[in-house]
Amino acid sequence: FAKEQAPELIGELITAACDAADGETEICVGVDARQLVELLVVKCRPQEVYTFLLEALCGSDLLPAARVRGVDVLRTTLLAMQDSKRHMFLGSCFPALLKRSLVATISAELMPTYIDALRNFAVAFVPDMEEDIAET
Fold it and tell me: What confidence tens digit (pLDDT) does each residue in 47-61 have?
């Protein structure tokens, strides 16, 4: 299928990668959902991946573990964008993630992992802050 259409499946692929039992992420013979997610991020236009991934993260269909993984994939996607374009996406992205996290059905057990993913996401775009946080 065309790489222009592939980003539409990012939410489902992240769910498949996180939902598989006993670490088995093969969604059909020889196809690993984690590898497909990584391939989408590398091969597809970052703007397209961003659009469909943020839609999935702000929706209510993702399982909590997939939501955590999605934040990491979103960070990777934004870092793959050209610096000149990234600021157009980043400004609305983090507030949307924070807003969604306040109403998400993430268990108390998984919440620290989700908050850590959000922190790693934010710190990735503030280089000076990484050094300051590492020192504390």
Answer: 988 988 998 888 888
